[in-house]
Amino acid sequence: MAGSMTICFFVVLSISILLSWTNPRGETLKSFSLSPLYSSTQSASSSNEDISGLRYDFYHETCPQAESIVRTHMARLYSDHNNVSAALLRLFFHDCFIEGCDASVLLDDSNGDKNHSIERQAIPNQTLRGFDKIDSIKEELEKTCPGVVSCADIVSIATRDGIMLAGGPFYPVLTGRRDSIHSYFNEALAAIPRPDDNITQTLHLFDLRGFDERETVSLLGAHNIGKIGCEFIQKRLFDFKGTGQPDPTIAPDFLTEMRMRCQDSNRTTTRPSSSSMASLEMSESAVGMSYLQALSSSISSGAGFDTHYYQSLLSGRGLLFADQQLMANEKTARLVRAYASDDGSTFRMDFARAMMKMSGLNVLTGSQGQVRRNCSLPLVSS
């Protein structure tokens, strides 16, 4: 009876979320039809499983406390470091964007071979934070349910819980992912969106993973939380595209403001080729700017997970070139205006939906992959 009630609750919850996805002004629902993932989730009342092999409450019998342990641990982490939400969101994005949500970005599969490059060493991943947070959650789960909960599931659940702690929307996380036995250095180098990409490049990379314009614009709204590190902004302020000049599209007053916060370090660095989502810093003391700081005093904005990112873009105050480029395309600009013009409910629902979709990208299930005991190390075959 309890199992039937759990399944029923999930189906009702999923349907309520689906019915709540509102239509931004200027867009038609036809341009954003439901993908198979959501159709299967909505109709899975009998099997409690989606087409990827993930299930709701996968650990119900093997580790019933799993999600509660993650939630409690995340609450403690957030009370100490509220930017842990941004850090784990970046980690989740980088993991799922390259070969799917398989915890490959956490893995060191080099076996001591210095000539073997691992995924987390790729330039787009060098500023990632939160590995130790995932490790601490894993250690706690191993005490209760050794060898049961995958690192990939921990990343997905902890990211969702972090988003909620930061004031973001709830969305169901299906579980049952397994961990990759390989990391993907070259793929990470080539395929993660860059902060200096134009709108065509950004949309192309998201499209390759099945995300349309609306989903892409909503996912980039993750920049609502965290700071943009100055190393990702400086090239735009002092040497845009190698010209020795600032980005000419930045308004003079905003250029002055950003240069005050992010002075020219005169350092040559490859870090700006990291992804736009990767530029969110975890440390409260990180030198950089947030999108709340980017807003002018004439624009009201709540603190946290609201529409201030989109309001900033409307005002020409995007911190990253790739962000401001959302206003350079007619369709994405229309979506930015729509998200900025209401109370945030449209963005929140679309963001929840896109995060559900991303969390199911190319997952390993069943006998695929493995469940690591240590998130940075593959299991050694006996």
Structural commentary:
With 382 residues, this protein is an all-alpha fold. The protein is built from 16 helices and three strands. It has a three-stranded antiparallel beta sheet with strand order 2-1-3. The longest helix has 19 residues, at 2-20. It starts with a helix and ends in a 24-residue tail after the last helix. Mean pLDDT is 82; it is low at 1-7, 9-47, 267-273, 278-286 and 294-303.
Summarize this structure as a short list of keywords or feature phrases:
382 residues; mainly alpha; three-stranded antiparallel β-sheet; 16 helices; 2% strand; globular; disordered N terminus
Overall average pLDDT:
82
Radius of gyration: 20 Å
Which quaternary structure do these chains form? single chain
The counted number of beta strands is 3
Largest sheet: 3 strands, antiparallel
Count of helical regions: 16
Widest sheet, order of strands: 2-1-3
Question: Helical content, roughly?
Answer: 40-55%
Coarse shape: globular
- Tell me what portion of residues adopts beta-strand conformation: under 5%
Encode the helix/strand succession as letters: HHHHHHHHHEHHEEHHHHH
Structural class, by secondary structure, is mainly alpha
Distance between the termini: 41 Å
Uncertain stretches: 1-7, 9-47, 267-273, 278-286, 294-303
Short description:
With 382 residues, the chain is mostly helical.
